[in-house]
Every structure is written in C-alpha cells, then in structure tokens.
C-alpha cells in the first residue's frame, strides 16, 4: 500500500505543504514535493529545513535514534534538490512517453547518482532482526544521490510500465501501480479518488433531475 502524507506538524501547519508519500518509489515521492504542476505550483521544499523534513519523513535520514537530530541542509543543498527534482520529473515523464530524455537532464541525474549515497547499516538492537539505519558523511547530498539512483533504476527497469499519472487532470502526482489488477487510477482514494466519486455522484444526480 502507498504511504500517505504525513500529518501536518507545527512546521507544516498548511496542509498543502504536507509531503505526500503515495508514489511507491523515493524518486516519485521526491518529485511530488512540487504540487499542482498544471495550475499554480505549490512548492513544498520552502527552505532547507523543509528539505530535511522530507528526507526524514521519507526514511532517508542518517539520524539513528529518537535522540539524534538529522544533519542540517544548506541553501546550496536546497537549490540542488529543486534542480534535481525537476530534472527527475522530466526524465520520468519522457520515459513514460517513450521518448529520449533531454541530454542535460540525463547528465544532471547521472552526476547526482554518481555521488556517494546512503550506506545501509544494521542499527544496534537486541532484537533478532536489527532495524535499518543509514550512514553518510553528508546527509542531505547523500539522500539526494540515493533518490537519483532510484530514478535511474526505475526508468531503466521493468517497473517503468507500471508508473502512472493520477487521472485527475488537475493532479500532477505520479505513482507506481502496485494493485493486483494494475488498474489503479488515482494517486490516492483519500485524495483524487474521493473527489472523482463525489463529482460522478453529482453528475448522475443532475442527469436524473433533468429527466
């Protein structure tokens, strides 16, 4: 099942700034940090702290415990993140459309994917199955490298055929269709799916009232 948006916190009092995690892949969730691409765009990576929040909520933080604080991000990291995000969006959409990527986008994604990424580590634990933690010398750049690598693997692998855009014309979210019948239409039933159901009901009600 896709991971839903995190509940708004004090730092994300505006529900529009809450990060949606319904893409099914880190790169698709990262692309979703810019919302409403086909209308008035909503920038969810508003500052370096927002970038760190996304990294933490995406499960890509190098913080290993409740007492650990995730490493900070710089203004340069934020610019790099936004630039990478838009290149990833164009790259994935080109792959979905069956056309070659823009060479500049491919070069940028390759450069980011080639940087040191997050190293998986076994966290200290008394449990038979130790939890996963991530290690990196520079947390934010390593998380971005991990996202870039995920995109490269997605667009070059067999799962690309299961990447879809939400059927709501006003929604720009992309997702990996993991439904059994591969018939998922909406980014989420809690978001666009319910809106479509309500619109359909109203349309049928109007048609019945005019008969």
Description:
It contains 6 helices and 6 strands. It is mainly alpha-helical and 211 residues long. A two-stranded antiparallel ribbon has the order 1-2. It has a two-stranded antiparallel sheet with strand order 3-4. The protein has a two-stranded antiparallel ribbon with strand order 5-6. The longest helix is centred in the middle third of the chain and has 23 residues, at 75-97. The protein is globular. The relative contact order is 0.14.
Give structural attributes:
211 residues, 6 strands, two-stranded antiparallel sheet, mainly alpha
Strand line-up of the largest beta sheet:
1-2
Task: Name the shape in a single word.
Answer: globular
Radius of gyration: 19 Å
| Intertermini distance | 41 Å
**Beta-strand level of the residues, as a percent range?**
5-15%
Helical percentage? 40-55%
Mean pLDDT, nearest integer? 85
User: What composes the largest sheet?
Assistant: 2 strands, antiparallel
List how many beta strands DSSP finds: 6
Oligomeric state of the chains in view: single chain
String of helices and strands: HEEHHHEEHEEH
Low-confidence stretches: 199-210
Structural class: mainly alpha
* Number of contiguous helices: 6
